[in-house]
């Protein structure tokens, strides 16, 4: 088992609880961690025996383009996409951050973190 991480991904997107947020947009950050078997790729040096970073980035980017009210919803959609499209991934952890959220005071970012583990029989739990 091993971990692949994509850290510090940045997107401009139109998420937010308030209508105004969905109109003007904001900057968001994503940190993604997946657990999968990396031993075969380590031995063979073949891309098809691991998870392609470009595929992970594309899945995150596609979900970031679809507006949502809550960061929790965006994070959940990414977890679902990765576990549905990459069945050999055992666990996914994602943090989604909104930079400078409209709280009426100073806050550099608001962040949510979700984890999804695949069950023993390949099901999602």
Sequence-ordered SSE layout with sheet pairings:
Elements: E1 2-13, H1 19-24, E2 26-36, H2 39-44, H3 53-65, H4 71-85, E3 91-99, E4 109-117
EC number: 4.1.2.25
InterPro entries: Dihydroneopterin_aldolase (IPR006156), FolB_dom (IPR006157), GTP-CH-I_C/QueF (IPR043133)
Catalytic activity: 7,8-dihydroneopterin = 6-hydroxymethyl-7,8-dihydropterin + glycolaldehyde
How would you characterize this protein structure?
It is built from four helices and four strands. It is an alpha+beta fold. Strands 1-2-3-4 form a four-stranded antiparallel β-sheet. The longest helix is centred in the middle third of the chain and has 15 residues.
Terminal Cα span: 19 Å
Structure summary, number of beta strands: 4
Low-confidence stretches: none
How many independent structural domains? 1
Fold-level CATH name: GTP Cyclohydrolase I, domain 2
Average pLDDT reading: 94
Beta strand %:
25-35%
Oligomer class: single chain
Over the alpha carbons, how many angstroms does the gyration radius reach? 16 Å
Q: Which structural class do the helices and strands define?
A: alpha+beta
**Order of strands, widest sheet:** 1-2-3-4
- Percent of residues in helices comes to 25-40%
CATH architecture: 2-Layer Sandwich
